[in-house]
């Protein structure tokens, strides 16, 4: 029996009995129980060590070496009280997954005595074998080693894998030369830069602000399908995406899945991974069905960006692991099924002050309104000025299948702000040149506070087709892909915002020096920024063809493929802004650019190989067998003396099969040749472009078309690979 049919047969052997849901426990009873929070630290650390740790967390600085042993001992004491035997530095290399190397506390003293130990050095810094992680040539040209270093702003936690418990220390990963090799190190630098820039601007309004922390609430979309069925598809096993599959008779056209009840098997999986997440302090809040069959979403309460990024990365790991227990497979890919909606990861982003103010929430008084307007308009200006970097930050082979596919924002970066704020900006802009003698009144007139009901209406009635939308008290970067590490998008967004705020401050100070009153200087600069960045604002249907045309008229870029979108990373403009904000040195950008291109090449290469394999080793033999059955049938009909008319239909099918198989085989052979040409290219960028144009664009759709046609012709019982209707509708 083929894997397909045994998987279908096993579907009802539900693993549920093993995972019978426990009676509901209160979330608060388990929340954060596996996290070394400050509250836990208070119990396990001396006053001195606790103070030092708390200070490091606040300032984002490394912990004091002198106290590291004490802190490490405290963490070990806590971990051992929970039965932990091993620890690992946990980091986020550029491969896109997380990495760990487990060591045990167990060690032997010189005289052979066995003890458990975890010293400060092991807590603060480790040297994993870094050679297998991508470095874009950075390590090759300098020194081969890299190290991981604890980032105390993200707390240590205990990961439960099976019966094993491991203490995880969240770290950054850097080369000995100081070059960052992961997603986290640059993110922390960008956060430091925006903190400073935003605090400086806040001081126009409130001298009490000493820290600004960007916040992030991600919404994770994903598909869940039966693991047995997934295992029977080589494309899902190797690419997390189906490279072919005929559309089922029923797709998502009824939209009956959206906000419908969650299937029981999936529900049990959700509760299981939520429980694990709560223990790790991930504040998940919502879960629901998405538009496509088998598609779901979960979202947490927002947190500071750094922690939110770790939590999202952790969650993606947890989901994959917990799904296995339920014999399910989670697909985080941006486009697992053609013709069905893809998955994104909306990044809700805002800025919070240490005085408890959300800088992107319209204020109550004229002064706070002006502060809101300042940060609001600066965000628009930042996205306008650096749209190319925003686009590059979300570029990946997988996201290319989703962006602009009439279900996700297009590759054009624009900003949606809603009807009410559009009116407000128009009004502010209309006052250009006006003397602001009665500026207090002018600003009062904006009366954003009393208009909050209108803002909320805008928010509920919001435009779902925009890649970057204002939703009442935060911006939502929607073009981020579901499998992406949010750090990339967040590093860029916070850097471009930091840069824009710094320029803004210079501009305002310039006017003040010329003798303008502060409010007037602020207002004039805001006005100018509105005028300069207006063309990035778009309220209409982002999926429409008219918008693509309109955007072109406005001179907005529409870069559809990853290899070209990545060009923005290494322009002089990009190098300058990342260097000025202390986020990336030039060679780090070059290296990252190279790594992203290589990732792209590998992804397309693997998919191309899988397509070839499916065509040659799975589909072709089945088709030939079917052809033989038809031939035997025709011969038999002839033998018993029936004329041509009796096998007219069989002949049509046979001819169709021959023609499809010929085209398919030719395409596969030609695609292999095209790959060879690409593989001989030495320039990574050219190679990526060639893989995109000459392999993916030229052959993927064609090959898929023929495979899908064959799927619909060959007898169902002979087809060995699970079909869309089975993966999407059987549970
Ligand atoms: P939606 O209708 O998109 O689900 P929600 O208000 O539920 O809108 O928010 C979606 C996400 O935005 C959640 O993760 C939420 O925590 C987050 N969010 C809300 N306020 C902020 C903020 N100030 N900064 C960052 N994220 C936020
Ligand atoms: Mg949302």
Description of the molecule:
- With 731 residues, this protein is α+β, with helices and mostly antiparallel strands.
- It has three domains: 31-182, Ubiquitin-like (UB roll) (Roll); 191-584, Glutamine synthetase/guanido kinase, catalytic domain (Creatine Kinase, Chain A, domain 2); 599-729, Four Helix Bundle (Hemerythrin (Met), subunit A).
- The protein has 27 helices and 16 strands.
- Helix 4 (47-59) crosses helix 5 and helix 13 packs parallel to helix 20 (518-533).
- The structure holds adenosine-5'-diphosphate (ADP) and magnesium ion.
What brief labels describe this structure?
3 domains, binds magnesium ion, Ubiquitin-like (UB roll), 27 helices, 12% strand, Four Helix Bundle (Hemerythrin (Met), subunit A), 51% helix, alpha+beta, 731 residues, 6-stranded mixed β-sheet, binds adenosine-5'-diphosphate, Creatine Kinase, Chain A, domain 2, 8-stranded antiparallel β-sheet
């Amino acid at each position: 029996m083929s894997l397909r049919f045994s998987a279908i047969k096993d579907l009802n052997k539900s693993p549920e009995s093993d995972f019978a849901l426990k009676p509901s426990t209160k979330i608060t009873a388990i929340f954060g129980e596996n996290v070394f929070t400050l509250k836990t630290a208070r119990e396990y650390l001396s006053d001195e060590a606790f103070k030092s740790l708390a200070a490091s967390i606040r300032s984002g600085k490394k912990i004091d070496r002198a106290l590291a042993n004490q802190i490490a001992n405290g963490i070990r004491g806590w971990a051992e009280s929970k039965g932990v035997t091993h620890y690992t530095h946990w980091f986020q290399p550029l491969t896109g997954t997380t990495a760990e190397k487990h060591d045990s506390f167990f060690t032997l003293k010189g005289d052979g005595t066995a003890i458990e130990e975890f010293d400060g050095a092991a807590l603060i810094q480790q040297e994993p074998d870094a050679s297998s992680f991508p470095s874009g040539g950075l390590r090759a040209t300098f020194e081969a080693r890299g190290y991981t270093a604890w980032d105390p702003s993200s707390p240590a936690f205990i990961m439960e894998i099976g019966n094993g418990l491991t203490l995880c220390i969240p770290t950054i990963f850097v080369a000995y030369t100081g070059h960052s090799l992961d997603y986290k190190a640059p993110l922390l630098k960008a956060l430091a830069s925006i903190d400073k820039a935003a605090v400086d601007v806040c001081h126009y309004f409130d001298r009490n602000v000493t820290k600004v922390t960007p916040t992030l609430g991600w919404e994770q979309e994903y598909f869940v399908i039966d693991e047995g069925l997934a295992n029977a598809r080589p494309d899902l096993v190797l690419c997390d995406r189906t490279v072919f599959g005929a559309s089922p008779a029923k797709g998502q056209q009824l939209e009956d899945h959206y906000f419908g009840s969650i299937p029981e098997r999936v529900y049990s999986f959700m509760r299981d991974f939520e429980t694990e997440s709560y223990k790790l302090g991930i504040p998940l809040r919502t879960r629901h069905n998405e538009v496509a069959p088998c598609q779901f979403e979960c979202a947490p309460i927002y947190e500071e960006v750094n922690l939110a990024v770790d939590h999202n990365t952790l969650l993606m790991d947890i989901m994959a692991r917990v799904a296995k227990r339920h014999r399910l497979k989670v697909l985080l890919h941006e486009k697992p099924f053609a013709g069905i909606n893809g998955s994104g990861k909306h990044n809700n982003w805002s800025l919070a002050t240490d005085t408890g103010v959300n800088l992107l929430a319209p204020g109550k008084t004229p002064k706070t309104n002006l502060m809101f307007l300042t940060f609001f308009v600066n965000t628009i200006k930042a996205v306008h000025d650096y749209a190319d970097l925003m686009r590059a930050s979300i570029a990946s082979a997988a996201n290319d299948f989703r962006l602009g596919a009439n279900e996700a924002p297009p590759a054009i970066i624009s900003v949606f702000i809603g009807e009410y704020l559009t009116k407000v900006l128009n009004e502010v802009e209309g006052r250009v040149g006006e003397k602001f003698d009665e500026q207090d009144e002018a600003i009062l007139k904006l009366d954003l506070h009393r208009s909050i009901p209108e803002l909320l209406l805008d928010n509920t009635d919001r435009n779902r087709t925009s890649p970057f939308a204002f939703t009442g008290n935060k911006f939502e970067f929607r073009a981020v892909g579901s499998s992406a590490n949010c750090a990339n998008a967040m590093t860029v967004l916070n850097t471009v915002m930091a840069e824009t705020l710094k320029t803004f401050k210079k501009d305002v100070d310039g006017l003040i020096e010329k003798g303008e009153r502060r409010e007037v200087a602020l207002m004039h600069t805001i006005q100018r920024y509105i005028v300069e960045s207006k063309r990035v604002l778009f309220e209409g249907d982002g999926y429409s063809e008219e918008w693509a045309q309109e955007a072109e008229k406005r001179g907005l870029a529409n870069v559809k493929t990853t290899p070209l979108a990545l060009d923005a990373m290494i322009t002089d403009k990009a190098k300058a802004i990342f260097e000025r904000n202390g986020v990336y040195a030039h060679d780090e950008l070059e290296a990252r650019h190279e790594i992203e291109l290589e990732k792209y090449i590998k992804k397309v290469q693997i998919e191309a190989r899988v397509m070839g394999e499916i065509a040659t080793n799975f589909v072709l033999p089945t088709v030939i067998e079917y052809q033989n059955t038809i031939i035997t049938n025709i011969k038999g009909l002839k033998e018993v003396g029936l004329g041509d008319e009796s096998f007219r239909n069989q002949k049509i099918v046979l001819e169709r099969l021959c023609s499809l198989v010929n085209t398919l085989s030719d395409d596969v052979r030609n695609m292999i040749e095209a790959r060879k040409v690409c593989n001989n290219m030495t320039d990574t960028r050219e190679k990526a472009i060639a893989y995109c144009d000459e392999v993916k664009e030229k052959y993927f759709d064609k090959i898929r078309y023929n495979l899908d046609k064959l799927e619909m012709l060959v007898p169902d019982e002979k087809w060995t690979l699970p079909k869309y209707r089975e993966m999407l509708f059987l549970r």
